[in-house]
Amino acid sequence: MPYSNEHKTVLQAIMHEGALHEARGKELVIRLFKHNNTAQILSEINTKLRPLCMTIKSINCEVTGELYWIFANTVQDKTASFNSEFSQAELALLRNVYSEIVTSNSGWVSSTFCLNLCPSINLKLSKTDAEQFLLEMVNRQWLCCKDGKYYMGVRSIAELLQYFKDTYEGNLHICTLCKQELFYVMFL
User: Fold this and answer.
1) Phi and psi for 145 in degrees, rounded to 5?
2) What percent of the chain lies above the pLDDT cut of 90?
3) How far apart are CA 94 and CA 130, in angstroms?
4) GO CC terms on record (predicted)?
């Protein structure tokens, strides 16, 4: 099937959401293409994206197990960053939260601990502003929050994995079955 406006619609939905829940993606594919072969559609879109060093990745949320489709750059480097819509203080807080998540034994950090990081970033950021920012990061799937704990979000895993590998090499857990990096390791 040739690349069509329907393909573009799926791509735009993923880009707009940042992380599109697989169930919503499947509904969109069925509505647009009259079939549910999402693997075929994503492959056709990725064929068009490959020359642009972009891709659609399927990433499982480590906390919920739910699958998301994420538009990501295939050329990752240490300079991966957010656009300028966030202040330097907010980005410093996010880097500190990432650091705490990656270096923890549990793969999460409490929301209270995150807010108490504010004075350590040496930039003006109130706890109220920090809380709003962290909620925005959850809404955008950069972080996952459950029961007052912050975990690595699916967009962070998809888009910043190389940064985490380069920065926290000794702290990343590797799944013995799939050989993929894990941030949240649930012990039974």
Assistant:
1) -125, 130
2) 59
3) 9
4) chromosome, telomeric region; nucleus; Smc5-Smc6 complex
Least confident range from 46-60, 112-126, 145-159: namely 112-126
Q: What CATH architecture applies to the domain 5-73?
A: Alpha-Beta Complex (3.90)
Instruction: Compute the distance between CA of residue 75 and CA of residue 93 in angstroms, rounded to an integer.
Output: 25
Q: Distance (Å, rounded) from C-alpha 188 to C-alpha 175?
A: 15
Options 3.40.50.150, 2.30.42.10, 3.40.50.300, 1.10.10.10; CATH of 88-182: 1.10.10.10
74: Cβ contacts below 8 Å, ≥ 6 apart: 50, 53, 54, 55
Residue showing tokens 């955008």: 140
Q: Which residues of 141-179 are buried (b: 16+ CB within 10 A; e: fewer)?
A: bbbbbeeebbbbbbbbbbbbbebbeeebeeeeeeeeeee
